[in-house]
Specification:
147 residues; 3-stranded antiparallel β-sheet; alpha+beta
Length: 147
């Protein structure tokens, strides 16, 4: 079993690589491909998933076509995207984000007020977002090429 997702036990799953259509080169979209609209089965009927998170039961989902990066987006690339599009992340809107506890300094760890009971390794950190990944006092300096 994988962390956080149920395994696909259907060994007959067949993916058609021809469905991925490379996009034209253009600014922040340089490394993106277009994924055509289509249906897929999401979730599981096993007791592994959390229905509250949409992990079950199995359901047929239809997605409109969309674009996705071929590679993980780096902080530098994301900064360019934010500058060009004025995008505001949910963490910036909410004023907090989940941060893995081992990434936090002792000072920031001591300021944690809330944790999710079922996943205590994820801490709710005020002012954590992509430019300040561990909250106040952190930054992405020397991490521009990190995903």
């Amino acid at each position: 079993m994988n962390c956080c997702t149920p395994e696909n036990t259907d060994k007959n799953t067949n993916f058609n690589n021809q469905l991925i259509i490379p996009r034209q080169k253009n600014s922040i979209f340089n490394n993106m491909v277009s994924i055509p609209a289509g249906s897929f089965i999401m979730g599981t009927n096993s007791n592994i998933g959390f229905p509250e998170d949409g992990e079950g039961p199995e359901k047929n989902i239809f997605l409109k076509d969309f674009n996705i990066d071929i590679y993980s987006v780096t902080n530098s690339e994301f900064e360019k995207f934010v500058t060009e599009t004025k995008y505001i992340t949910e963490a910036e809107q909410y004023g907090w984000s989940f941060v893995f506890y081992k990434l936090l300094s002792k000072i920031n760890l001591s300021k944690i007020e809330y944790k999710v009971t079922s996943t205590p390794w994820w801490c709710i950190v005020k002012n954590a977002y992509w430019r300040r990944p561990e909250g106040t006092g952190s930054n992405i300096k020397n991490r521009e090429n990190h995903p």
